DNA sequence: AAATCGGGCAACCGCGCGCAG
DNA sequence: CCTGCGCGCGGTTGCCCGATT
């Protein structure tokens, strides 16, 4: 038995909102505030579902919303957070003043994911597409492309770090009272420092333990160790994250969250991302640069292309 | 000039969670 | 403890409009 509808669907208007409806909703919310959305349509004199009213208000009518284009800083912020927590749009939006989850989601779907793809970065895993394809190829042909025996293999390290990262992120979400997000000062572009992309760790330390068995989900930001139990309830509890990240990120930055990397080890990544007018000025470029470095460092890694899969 | 295509965005839908009774 | 309701989230749909053929 399903849940009953929140309103009489036969008698509610759907589709685009008119200026008159906007005015009524705005007039109501400005005098009464927002409370029980189910009752808002009736009280405001609207033939709309309460849900529709809430959506219209939060995405369009709410005060202090920004309607201008996303800035490069905001772009980087979204990409960085998406790499870390996946499509938790509300969390990402909460860290961008004046932006809604719908804004961020739409912007990602229409612009950023394409931009990343065109730059050779897989928008799901945030790793170079060639690397992702190699991982897929290994899964489907476990014998054909053996993992290099060296414990410092790029992919092995990546899988290990990724798993560790998601475990740590999960713990952080569970234990931190005010989970943080990367914080940047919009008043000064040069003060914005980007966390290390979690799926592209810096060169590995010399000593490394036994390689982990890897599965496809280990390469997903969203799926893996994050866990469904954490994903919804715990994260939702912390939706008021916007301005509360200092305690976690201050001082040592992201890298001091009991995590993976030594402080400052990401400097190769960040050097081009935070500069002013450097030649390679984007996050994506930084990732690609790093991938090239990895390729030169580990020439034994085979490169595969799409023809390997067909 | 008309038809088609594709991108962008607003809005809808279904589901899970939290909370109050 | 159980149940029902409201809220919020992420995924998806559909419309609008500009570009292209």
UniProtKB/TrEMBL annotation:
Ranges where the HTH myb-type domain occurs: 9-61, 62-116
GO molecular function list: transcription cis-regulatory region binding
Main location: nucleus
Boundaries of every Myb-like domain copy: 9-61, 62-112
Protein name: Uncharacterized protein
SMART domains: SANT
GO cellular component: nucleus
Keyword Nucleus among record annotations: yes
Localization annotation: Nucleus
The UniProt record lists the keyword Ion transport: no
Keywords attached to this entry: DNA-binding, Nucleus, Repeat, Transcription, Transcription regulation
Entry-linked InterPro entries: Homeodomain-like_sf, Myb_dom, Myb_TF_plants, SANT/Myb
Organism: Rhynchospora tenuis
